[in-house]
User: Which sequence fits this backbone?
């Protein structure tokens, strides 16, 4: 439906949600593919809040895979974007989640 309507932001958001669902199920390969696709679309469209959340999802994914460097990279992008947006509650949430998983 979103494709028929040309809703590019909606498509990017939906793909990101699918990736987050797969992450929650532990399907890391599928989650990575979906989140990466969503992130590319979101970056093209300048969807800052969604870019922040998708980077945080990728940070969690890389934590689960044991790659602290990639996890930290995505976490820092998410943190910086949330700071730019003045999203204090999101900053607090990701800090708690990231440090509890790491």
Assistant:
């Amino acid at each position: 439906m979103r494709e028929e309507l040309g809703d590019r932001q909606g498509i990017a958001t939906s793909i990101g949600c699918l990736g987050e669902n797969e992450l929650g199920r532990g399907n890391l390969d599928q989650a990575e593919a979906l989140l990466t696709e969503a992130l590319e679309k979101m970056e093209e469209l300048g969807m800052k809040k969604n870019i922040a959340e998708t980077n945080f999802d990728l940070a969690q994914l890389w934590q689960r895979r044991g790659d602290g460097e990639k996890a930290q990279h995505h976490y820092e992008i998410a943190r910086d974007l949330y700071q730019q947006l003045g999203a204090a509650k999101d900053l607090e949430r990701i800090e708690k989640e990231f440090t509890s998983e790491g």
Observations:
- The chain has a mean pLDDT of 93.
- The longest helix spans residues 8-25.
